[in-house]
Amino acid sequence: MKKIIISFIGILAVLFCFTACEKDYLDTSPTDRVSSSAAVLTTDNALTALNGIHRALYERYADSQGRVGIGAFNLHIDEAGEDHVFNRSNWTQSYRWLPNESPTNSYTTANWAMFYQWIANANIIINGIDNATGEQADKDGIKGQALVYRAFCHFHLVRVWGNRYETGGGNSQLGVPIKLDNSVDPIARSTVEEVYTQINEDLDDAIGLLDGYSRNNKSHFNANVAKGLKARVALTQGNWSTAAQFASEARAGFTLMDAATYAQGFQIFSETNSEFMWASHIVEDQTDSFGNYGAYISRNFSSSAIRGNPRSINNLLYDMISATDVRKTLWDPTGEHLNLPDGVSLLSTHNKYPYTSQKFIAVSNGDSRLDVPMMRAAEMYLIEAEALARNSQDGLAAQTLYDMVITRDPDYTLSTNTGQALIDEILVQRRIELWGEGFRWYDLKRLNLPLDRTGSNQSSTYTNGVMQIAADDNRWTWPIPQDEIDANPLIEQNPI
């Protein structure tokens, strides 16, 4: 890990340019970085560092417009599934599975470095906050949030660069290096099981520290978010009882939005939307206009990506949505978008294609900001329902699914499906509900399912021929970046 840690730890210099530090520190420390001791000298300093990680979620990486933090990464994951459809061949690296094939692909390298950068900055807080000057409650809240970040990053890393977690298996297959401090000594890859053990340990510690903690806003974490991430992890591991329990606890206090609110699309109002549990709110003076999440996924912003290549839904999935379901209005099979929310319009230069999305709406044609959705109560219902169904609790699973879907479709009735048929129904609802939010490729991998884009409105021309990928194909596990292989003699490469 030596090269990546050294290259990215200097981000803390940005975090502290607004924070007063001791004069002797300012006289002796290099101008391009901040010492870890200064970062956690006081709880005020540590909170500033934590805010820097929150802000880093929507910063530009590798100096690339297409790699602006977690929103861009979530899009890349979504594009690699079968439900996300492109209408032209540009901005399609992940859609064509190119990062999955090459250790030198810039998407592979930049995203690996991005997650380890966030881990490095979280480690400074985790390992130093206990000795900071300040109230214990503040230390607990700050440390708890940093632990969530470390777990969150390791969770993404192991799912992308490690083989799938096998429920009931030993999971001795190689995962990723576990970084618990910021030493520059090379370390080897831990097993998948070891990585998940660390993830769960961090989340359990975070849940305890965040119990009763009141966060500043939804860009920050509280115990609900930590429990929601715990539920995601448990679902991936096949720990059904744990997944159901924590999903239920996580959504406590968050109510599903009504149909009228849903029809307005996902905009910049997550703070007042009762369903959003965690979201990155981009303030106007911190925007990356043509790199924001909304510059690629919204329907109305005037970027070349959206004007030329608006995103569509797989028509086969669209046809599965009930005609009375409000979510059916979030994609237009004609592409004309005559039912856009009030005050929203397209320019004459916006190209129109069938089944394009209006689920995501930017502030305006000239302002690409929208809140990056990171966790919603709807996902927790879906996790709970799937976990209950897989645990042979069909009645409870059907009721949990009903409680969510009825808020979208007033004509929905309690499912009478059982067993695999009920699980399949839940998974369809999951595909519909979470479209564009970064889940489908992960779901295919965790369920050991193949990619199948055939028979739909997918074009093999735009996918570069990537229409079907078997579940055992090596490309489900991304190659370790060549930069990391070169810098760390202990790293083993994945089969390519």
What does this structure look like?
Helices cover 43% and strands 4% of the residues. By secondary structure, the chain is mostly helical. The protein has a two-stranded antiparallel sheet with strand order 1-3. It has a two-stranded antiparallel ribbon with strand order 2-6. Helix 5 (43-56) runs antiparallel to helix 7 and helix 17 runs parallel beside helix 18. The two termini are 21 Å apart. Residues 1-33 have low confidence and may be disordered.
Supply the key terms.
mainly alpha; two-stranded antiparallel sheet; 4% strand; 43% helix; 496 residues; globular; disordered N terminus
What percent of the residues sit in helical stretches (DSSP H or I)?
A: 40-55%
Number of helices: 20
Q: Which strands sit side by side, in order, in the main sheet?
A: 1-3
User: Tell me about the biggest sheet?
Assistant: 2 strands, antiparallel
**Which structural class is indicated by helix and strand composition?**
mainly alpha
- Assembly type of the chains comes to single chain
- Strand/helix succession: HHHHHHEHHHHHHEHHEHEEEHHHHEEH
Based on DSSP secondary structure assignment, what is the total number of beta strands? 8
Specify the overall morphology.
Answer: globular
> Spans of 5+ residues with little confidence (pLDDT < 50)?
1-33
**Roughly what fraction of the amino acids lie in strands?**
under 5%
Average pLDDT, rounded to a whole number, is: 91
Radius of gyration: 22 Å
Please report the distance between the alpha carbons of the first and last residues. Answer: 21 Å
